[in-house]
Amino acid sequence: MTDQIRVLVVDDIPETRDHLTKLLGFESDIEVVGAAASGREALEMAGRLSPDVVLMDINMPDMDGIATTEQLSSSAPNAAVVMMSVQGEADYLRRSMLAGAREFLVKPFSSDELTASIRQVSARERDKQSRMAVAPVAAVIGGEAAGRTGGAGEPGTVVAVFSPKGGVGRTTVAVNLAIAAATELGKKVVVMDGSFQFGDVGVLLNLNPKSKSIADLIPEMEVGELESIDTFLVDHTAGIRVLLAPPSPETAEMITAGMAKKVIEALRRDHDLVVVDCTSYFNDTTLAILDAADVILTMLSLEITSIKNMRLFLEVAEQLGYESGKVKLILNRADSALGIRVTDVENSIGRKVDEQIVSDGRSVVYALNRGVPFFLSNREAQVSQDILRLARTVTGVGAAVVPEADSQKTTQKKSLFAWR
Ligand SMILES: Nc1ncnc2c1ncn2[C@@H]1O[C@H](COP(=O)(O)OP(=O)(O)O)[C@@H](O)[C@H]1O
Ligand SMILES: [Mg+2]
How many CB atoms lie within 10 A of CB 380? Predict the structure, then answer.
């Protein structure tokens, strides 16, 4: 195997095929091995040429990009698909991901975006394949299977708090979980607001909206080194640190998937626990965060829409190659009487809920109005106890025995495994 990334271009328009082939011809690490004019031709060529990456147009006569991608997963399972689409086809993103595409590019895109996407999916795919090659071992050491980088010093655990639907309590849980781990379990914790456009971690923590944020890191992220990341973290009185979202949505757009990944890696180097509050839609930045995470706390509530979206997400997670142990289902407001029972949810999505958190409007709203997270203001409330239990499970600090400070890291790794 060479180090070059072998790309198959698929587009029904000859000029587009030529243009893409020429563009990629300038890249020394990328080789265009073929160009197909239809879905059928793509399937035939992919089987014969074993490309690493298939650059696929979504709109093609006969067999479209989505149908072709679905079939590719059986004829060329190792080829990662980058889907190309024109603007205004929002629903296509989800359908493409469900069909097995790894990336989604909206036309017109720059050659930088194109090559970055190709390199990223190919790296992710190679990483996945090497993990699968050592699957029996990786399955045992949970942390490494989930993408830990190793190296000097133990990297911390990255927990992404995600939900395919908004308003289910991601931010609430992310913030209080972080505080529980810091105050009760003695962990060094940082919260990253991964909802770059409309982040409200700062609001929940009553932080000055003019505080420093991830936006201040953009110049450094572009160069590649994140030396001053520490200076852009905001200290919260609850004993956690926070990397806020940019102050404006325009700035948020400048944060790429690659940057988000770098930031997470930098944060995990210096903290025991990195909690990322994610957005509810799939874009390449969210995917990069989910990829980088050791555990994805997937939040759901007892609502039909939440359950439907959860089913879709679990399919996507499987397509993305996440081991089932990486995705944890957290049912928030589990006791709210809305006519749907927990067992109904479990039957509907075909999976057990891993943890439950009770509904406690009084504590949560009381806290919110005072700008004090409920874990601090209502420490004895059931909702706080539920959060603490979750914090123990994620960090691996058991309820009965609180380990010595220097043995905490080992326990942490064990727990990831223990949760499976
Ligand atoms: N366990 C809970 N009990 C009561 N209210 C809750 C609970 N969790 C979240 N909420 C409330 O639900 C709303 C949405 O929560 P939020 O954390 O902002 O969700 P998301 O970040 O997923 O959009 C907020 O008003 C929050 O106070
Ligand atoms: Mg939120």
Answer: 7
